[in-house]
Amino acid sequence: MTRIAIIEDDQAISQMYRFKFESEGFEIEIADNGKLGLVLIEEYKPEVVLLDLMMPEMNGDEMLEKLRAKTELQEKVQVLCHDITVSRLNQEFDLIMSAMAMHHVKDTENMLNQFSKHLKQGGQIALADLDSEDGTFHKAGTEGVFHNGFDRKYFLELLNRHGFIDIKFSTALTVKADTGLYPVFLVVARKVAVTH
């Protein structure tokens, strides 16, 4: 069974992914900051680490630097920081995840196209983001916000267009803020496996 460590300070997001991955047969452990994440990785020895970059006590970048500095992890820690919407990696993945980041990507269709191109045949996506909202989730004028959430029907059409099947939406959580309630969807899907 594949062991996954989730290092994420937002409990709603980490629990959402725990539920999904455990239902698919993965073994999950969670830490809510970088310091605890280092201890978790040392003791749990996961095959995959999902890491939030913006966390208290020790952020994701600081944690990665500490991991890369460990002699026993040389050649085992691979860090990718690359804009796949601009240029493709020479690599394919079994799983691509995104949590609350897609509404910050200008060209959603290109992003989903690139996700499809970067997945192995039969690979999966697990994407969480805002349902369509009235524009009050972020403060007015917040830089880098290109979408006020997403309409699920439209998002389903985009996923179909880029070769995804077994598409399932669920409401992962609802964010409570001073400006209102904001449902967050989780969509999981699989890339069509080509048979010869």
From the 3D structure, determine the CATH topology of the largest domain: Rossmann fold
Unreliably modeled segments: none
CATH class of the largest domain: Alpha Beta
Strand elements, count: 7
Please name the CATH architecture of the largest domain.
3-Layer(aba) Sandwich
Order of helices and strands: EHEHEHEHEHEE
Distance between the termini: 29 Å
The major β-sheet equals:
4 strands, mixed
Q: What is the residue-mean pLDDT, rounded to a whole number?
A: 87
**Could you give the order of strands across the largest sheet?**
4-5-7-6
Describe this structure in words.
- The chain has helices spanning 11-23, 34-44, 60-69, 108-118, 152-161; strands at residues 3-7, 27-31, 48-51, 93-99, 119-130, 164-177, 180-191.
- Helix content is 28%, strand content 30%.
- The strands form two sheets. It has a four-stranded mixed sheet with strand order 4-5-7-6, with helices on both faces. Strands 2-1-3 form a three-stranded parallel sheet, sandwiched between helices.
- It contains five helices and seven strands; from the N terminus they run βαβαβαβαβαββ.
- By secondary structure, the protein is of the alpha/beta class.
- The chain folds into two domains: 3-73, Rossmann fold; 93-191, Rossmann fold (3-Layer(aba) Sandwich), CATH 3.40.50.150.
